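Render this sequence as a predicted structure.
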Amino acid sequence: MLSVFSCKHNPQEDITPDLTNNYTNDSVSFQTEILPLLTGNCAMTGCHDAATAAEGVVLDNYNNVINTGDVTAFNTSNSDLYVVLLETDPKKRMPPPPAPPLTANQIALIAKWINQGARNTNIMRCDTNTFTFGAVQTIVNNLCIGCHSNSNPQGGINLSNYTNIKQETQSGKLLGSINHLLGISPMPKGGNKLEPCKITIIQKWADTGYLNN
């Protein structure tokens, strides 16, 4: 997600982190929904990880997202992080080609988080009893597809469809990378290890025969 954020990146007063249980069933979780989405599509080498910090934007933790992404709580139109996702010009939209744009649902989730106050919520909603391919694909689309799509298959790995995801899982590469096993490049690259629940979902899907369900 190379940046064409507006040139202003004025330090913004931090929004008080909210890691309590002060949320409803409709609350968006920054730590388990928004941050993984940004890590998988934006905070990578050459873009908005701490080492590259393209245009001064770093999207690897809450404070950096709020401050360098120019996020204004309750105001999507004044939040650069959101505005650039709506660009239709390929030269301006984020993530830029050849990476695919975020889906409408992913953009809506970011908007919802901002409109709820852009809080640092940490809500666990992972259900290991649902280990269909649909659940696996959702995890992959949120965390991996920014680097491993049809148009942007980094490392020669394309995770854009059932056949490819099944192949990478059967080979041991996908599970090895998300478990951060020695000798396999850890994924998400430059990000934290996936929640145990998400790893369990992928493992259960594999253990039950890689069904396309």
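Summary. Residues 30-41 form the longest helix (12 residues). The chain is about 35% helix and 0% strand.
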